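Below is one such protein, fold included:
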Amino acid sequence: MSDLKSQRRMAAEVLGVGKNRVWIDPEQEEKIEEAITRQDIRNLVESGAIDKRDVEGTSKGRSRKAKKQKQKGRRKGHGSRKGRKTARKSEKQDWMEKIRSIRKRLKEMRDEEEVTQEQYRKLYDMAKGGFFRDTKHLENHVANKLESVE
């Protein structure tokens, strides 16, 4: 094993890369050891005894695996969460999910004739105003209202 520090340094300058990206053919070490000028290094680069390695990037393998697991619903427990509740889902998104489920249930109730058209409109406006917490609250309200009327 010979010391090729100066040859590696010159090759890095000639190739325009760092010293770690210079590849030296181990079978031609003796020939490379004799090189003392930049022109000698250029000739060795041309002959293929010295070359530059490709840039190594950051692997995305682990990241892709974690992303797949999250798509399956894993790695989302309390210990893995960062930030407030609203950092993960905005209040508006939360409201949209709630009101859409309530309106869907309200339409089902109207179609099944559990509520009349007038009651539907009144309940719809109440839902719009944020009266109902969720669909169960709506159902309980309708059941209690109907009981009190009867």
